[in-house]
Amino acid sequence: MPKNTDTETPGNSAPALRRAIQILDAVSQLPTPPTFTEIVTKLGLPKSSAHGLCAALVDLGMLIRTDAGTYRVGTRVMSWANAFLSQTGLVEEFQRLLQDRRELRDFTVTLTVLDGQQVVYVACSNSKAALGFTFRIGMRLPAPFTATGKAILSTLNDEEICRRFNTGWPQRLTANSVASLESLLQELALARQRGYSVDDGQVREGMFCIGAPVHDFSGQVVAGLAVSMLEQEATESTRDMIGSKLVDIAASLSARLGRVVSH
């Protein structure tokens, strides 16, 4: 159980604010709205301070307390998320690109950014095909299991990747989810060779995803772009064809963000 103290150090300033953010993270990431007891237990927070923080977050519209006594994310958080999306050209250019490039119109296309050990979905274009899984803006998934996460991680060196996961490995989502850091590094080496990454049923069994990194004007990776399809659609020839097109489209998106590649 994590320990929480009110001691303020250079690496732990504004402890009350940090606890409030921990609470918001927990409520947003848990599969069902948690009770107060579940929040306290998960985070190892003192009940007295946690009670005051939850009450303040409700008052500020950051959390909503339901009649059942559980907590869910409030509408104020959504206004911040919308502000983030409106202030970045990444999502806007992604949407424009999908209108201009129709090669992937029959597939689900997603865009994510890396946040710690997870990816956050900032844009989605879900196809009509029944994948058995619906991507949503704001959704978080473990980066090592997703095609976009692998695509972003493949641009980092192994030392950086090891540091990112030195606190533990995420819980597997399916039996196919990559089980260790060593296995992930092997997957990323292969992704670098072929130019795109693969999620072969690691997020949901029966779903196959291909990912490619997106860079900004400075060459820094800023996002991952992915195409999702049913596993039976992902023949070897289809994978190569979609992978090649996705890499080209990711390069086009990078160019829209100002990246210039010298030849």
UniProtKB/TrEMBL annotation:
The keyword Thylakoid does not apply. Signal peptide: none annotated. Residues 76-259 form the IclR-ED domain. Pfam families: HTH_IclR (PF09339), IclR_C (PF01614). Keywords: DNA-binding, Transcription, Transcription regulation. Residues 14-75 form the HTH iclR-type domain. Gene3D superfamilies: 3.30.450.40, Winged helix-like DNA-binding domain superfamily/Winged helix DNA-binding domain. It comes from the Bacteria. InterPro entries: GAF-like_dom_sf (IPR029016), HTH_MetabolicPath_Reg (IPR050707), Tscrpt_reg_IclR_C (IPR014757), Tscrpt_reg_IclR_N (IPR005471), WH-like_DNA-bd_sf (IPR036388), WH_DNA-bd_sf (IPR036390). The keyword Transcription regulation applies. PANTHER family: HELIX-TURN-HELIX TRANSCRIPTIONAL REGULATOR, ICLR FAMILY (PTHR30136), HTH-TYPE TRANSCRIPTIONAL REPRESSOR ALLR (PTHR30136:SF24). This is HTH-type transcriptional repressor AllR. The lineage of its organism: Bacteria, Pseudomonadati, Pseudomonadota, Gammaproteobacteria, Enterobacterales.
